[in-house]
Design brief:
6-stranded antiparallel sheet, two-stranded antiparallel ribbon, 12 strands
């Protein structure tokens, strides 16, 4: 039964920072509680987060004595592909030693399956990482609500090196966005449970509660209680406490696929604002989709929060409305789509004539609409902005084979971005 069909859809109150209880059904999430031990090895300590297809938990590895992150996938999506990607990368790392760029990928530790009332769930164990670089409370750390430019340069330089390494291993990430780039936690290897708890707090446990006020009937498909994701502000402050040592890692390989030089036919679920046209129009995909997404990510981080193809208000749209708005901005910025995509875009006549000229009301467009780099000039020197625009243009070419590779992105990026000085930042000290 899908969550949308679940009778629990309107039965329980929805708590903030907690996955919907409707996902605890046959084929859905595995019910997990604090102090559960999975695989006779991993003791549940706290919830780290959740997504559409999995819950993620902080666990104590009873065999190694270290903390780890445990991703437990919903039964219906517990495919072996993500595990296969992790195993391939791990084997290549063992065979090739310390290849440049692998330090920017999450460290895979183990995998296993667990049987439960909702089915068989694939479990993946990795190192514990901190918040994503896309957290919305960055204004609690920096007074301009954005990363200082030297830190921003450093972040994107690390991500591009990680992507280049992935591609050199024959792996395409397929879901590259700021939510999948996580900070490394300094010193976590030496932290005790009490020390880590200072940054995460006690587990936030809430009992299930019915909307109609009736007593909750116990079900094997549902947990006895839900655990909220922790407030990560203190952890973010720790991750950014030494700007010159800030490190990030690429995680979540749920959309990743192997690349052997031939276009792959697969349906990716990349967020629309990061999706290359070949994803939007369901064409075969290649490493070029990561390069496009990397360009959007670079612009977002370097500009201080502005999307390359559209404003943040897109995030409130439905998927179809968002796709229309993004394609409109894409054409205004890059020009008319190639015919193979142009003719597939059924809504094009709302905004453009058949030559690709805009026929709508320009007074309703954002001020930066059609402008390529949408960032304040005080973020970077003019010469550097010109170089950045040239680089990003080569990454978002409509011609899939015309886009430069991730390795070329690294080569064309100033080396100083990896070792920026971080003096003079005004920080907010709480």
């Amino acid at each position: 039964m899908s969550p949308e069909q679940s009778p629990q859809l309107f039965t329980y109150w929805q708590y903030p920072c907690v996955e919907s209880i409707v996902y605890y059904c046959e084929g859905g999430f595995h019910p997990i509680h604090i102090d559960d031990v999975l695989h006779n090895r991993y003791r549940i300590v706290d919830k780290l987060g959740y997504g559409s297809y999995a819950t993620i938990w902080l666990v104590d590895d009873l065999a190694s004595g270290r903390f780890a992150a445990l991703k437990v996938l919903a039964a219906d999506v517990s495919k072996v592909s993500e595990v296969a990607i992790h195993r391939r990368l791990k084997q290549l790392q063992l065979n090739n030693g310390g290849s440049d760029g692998q330090e920017f990928l999450v460290e895979y530790l183990d995998d296993f399956k667990v049987e439960g009332p909702n089915g068989t769930h694939q479990c993946i164990v990795t190192e514990v990482l901190g918040p994503s670089i896309g957290v919305h409370y960055i204004d609690e750390i920096y007074d301009k609500e954005q990363y200082p430019i030297d830190i921003a340069k450093n972040l994107v330089a690390q991500v591009m090196r990680g992507v280049a390494y992935l591609h050199s291993c024959g792996v395409v990430h397929g879901d590259l966005h700021v939510g999948n780039i996580l900070f490394r936690i300094p010193g976590i290897e030496q932290m005790s449970h009490q020390e880590l708890q200072k940054y995460l707090g006690e587990p936030c446990i809430s009992r299930l509660s019915r909307r109609d006020g009736k007593p909750v009937t116990s079900s094997p498909h549902e947990p006895k209680y839900v655990v909220g994701s922790p407030d990560r502000l203190a952890l973010l402050q720790l991750c950014l406490s030494s700007p010159e040592a800030v490190r990030v890692k690429i995680c979540d390989f749920g959309e990743a696929f192997l690349w052997d030089g031939k276009p792959v036919i697969t349906q990716l679920h990349t967020p629309p604002v990061y999706a290359a046209p070949e994803i939007i129009f369901h064409d075969p995909v290649s490493p070029a989709v990561d390069v496009w997404a990397l360009a959007v990510l670079m612009h977002l981080v370097l500009s201080g929060g502005t999307l390359l193809f559209g404003g943040g208000y897109f995030l409130r749209y439905s998927y179809q409305a968002m796709k229309k708005a993004i394609l409109k901005e894409m054409v205004l910025t890059l020009g008319k789509l190639p015919d193979r995509w142009w003719t597939k875009w059924e809504d094009r006549s709302e905004y453009f004539d058949e030559n690709g000229s805009f026929i709508g009301d320009r007074t309703k467009l954002p001020l930066t609409s059609g402008q390529f780099l949408k960032m304040h000039s005080d973020r970077m020197e003019m010469e550097e902005l010109e170089g950045l625009e040239k680089l990003i243009r080569m990454m978002v070419s409509y011609g899939v084979t015309d886009r430069i590779s991730a390795a070329e992105v690294v080569q064309l990026t100033p080396q100083s971005w990896m070792k920026s000085s971080h003096e003079g930042y005004r920080r907010v000290v709480n």
